[in-house]
């Protein structure tokens, strides 16, 4: 894994830069600098246990930058002041340039720089503050352990490490009765930024354990000096930071980072189950987790974990997908079976209703006419006898047509119909059908036939096509007033045939258009016309069997036009 890949897991360098560091001009008295760093000039030190943290107060700075003509010439930190204090230097008349650290280690910001660059400089030169300059040498800001800690987010690597992985186990401690001056000397001797104040175990059986009761830090020293307190007489227990915020060695580093950010502190004591001192964790400890080697090992572990979990989830997902597909298939089959069962039940109900009505009426006519013809004591004229015979023939024809329609729709609904195409001359077939219907309807309406070509032969199931055209033309004639004209057109396009039939009949209400092609459905305005409601359903099934399409355009009182399109390629 490359350095650039590791940097992707860290905050960007921009977010870790404090853009508003305190800038001090050459010649500024040190006493004034200390007041600025403490941010509590002319105030009492708020270190009692009852003191409450106020997030609205400005946070004290741990370093100031010394400039001359907008150019950085030195830096002064809390640790520098502690060194002066430990050496008991009389600094009250000194100027900032007399005590500042120089030359200053800086970082020039370029697109190639990352937070890892700053962390490497921190470790190599054992510093806690890094001024950032642009390529022209202008000051952009200051990077410190505190500014980096503020930029850390919960999604960073802190949540994968525990306190015990980075804490300092060797803690410099002192009795709470020590003077502050003695503590500053310990800080310089051991090169540390804080001393933990302790007391021994209260139980006789527990003399070896130390229990933390407070802490003195470099920041505290700055505040004491700003208040001009006498550190040689000032005891730690009277001014120490308390109560202490503590964590357990098994807590995640993220907990420490959040506590520091919430309470604006730089270090936490680490205690055991009984409150005994185990170590200390500082902002610097938090930054150790971003060591490139440690990051590489941790990220490799995370990548392997993610890959393993991804494979497990993928396998589980495949099983779930297979189960979902199987369940959807079963559900679809059940829905289709239920729909077919419902259609079959509906079909049976229609057949039962028809048997009790549409079949009973012609049977009654046949029976009544036959009885009249059989009565020997009833003298019938030849014309009357012929009338009764015509009635029987008409009823038989009506029953035959009804039974044929029922057989046809049953065959189509069950999907048992198979096409049997033969070569058919379409213009001739249309003319034959037109002549048959004119004869059957005694020329109630004139049929005006036209074709875009004089003759055209193609492969088509003649029986199916005849059923389509006969039904459509019969309906057009049935629902049209006598002596009107029905238009019948045949058009041949590049890849399909078009049959268009238009009448001048009663038309169909718009509300009935969607249901018109369902079996046994009849429009709401045809109650005084004979019919079973099967004709258009048969037509639709026949057209779909030929992979064609049917369109209807109709308005009440303005007639209807039906257009049938059949693909030529599928009929050859």
Structure description:
By secondary structure, the protein is an alpha/beta fold. The protein contains 17 helices and 19 strands. β2 (63-68) and β3 (71-77) form a beta hairpin. α3 (78-86) crosses α8, α13 runs antiparallel to α14 and α16 runs antiparallel to α17. It is rod-shaped. 27% of the residues are buried. The model is unreliable at 40-57 (pLDDT under 50).
Topology of this structure?
Elements: H1 3-7, E1 22-25, H2 30-38, E2 63-68, E3 71-77, H3 78-86, H4 96-99, E4 107-108, H5 115-125, E5 129-133, E6 139-144, H6 145-151, E7 173-175, H7 180-190, E8 194-200, E9 210-217, H8 218-226, H9 236-239, E10 246-247, H10 253-263, E11 267-271, E12 277-282, H11 283-287, H12 292-356, H13 360-374, H14 382-414, E13 422-425, H15 426-440, E14 446-451, E15 457-460, H16 462-478, E16 485-492, E17 496-502, H17 535-545, E18 549-554, E19 560-567
Parallel strand pairs: 1-2, 4-5, 7-8, 10-11, 14-16
Antiparallel strand pairs: 2-3, 5-6, 8-9, 11-12, 13-15, 16-17, 17-19, 18-19
Helix pairs in contact: 2-8, 3-7, 3-8, 13-14, 14-17, 15-16, 16-17
